[in-house]
Amino acid sequence: MNPNTAPFNFYTSIFYDAIAPPHRPEQAHVIADSLTLNSVKIEWVPSENGDVPETFTLLWKEGNIPYWNAITIPSPTTSFYLQGLAPGKKYEVKITAENIAGKSN
To answer: Model-level pTM?
Structure first.
């Protein structure tokens, strides 16, 4: 060690803010007064995710068809008009969330 310099301590702080994949959005529901012959409005409540930006994926399919249609919706949007539906058909709808850490279940 050089006698002309004093020893010093070097400290560093590391802040680690763990980010986890979001939970699935909650309370997804159809807005009853939005129903038309071929469209419906779907709304949901985002899960608490610590203010990490997320996107939502709305998936829908006609009941007996094996493939899903999907559209990605950025936050803070929490509703979507699903259009092009056929009258008298049964549809399944689900919604997922995604952030930089991954997708919801």
So the answer is: 0.72
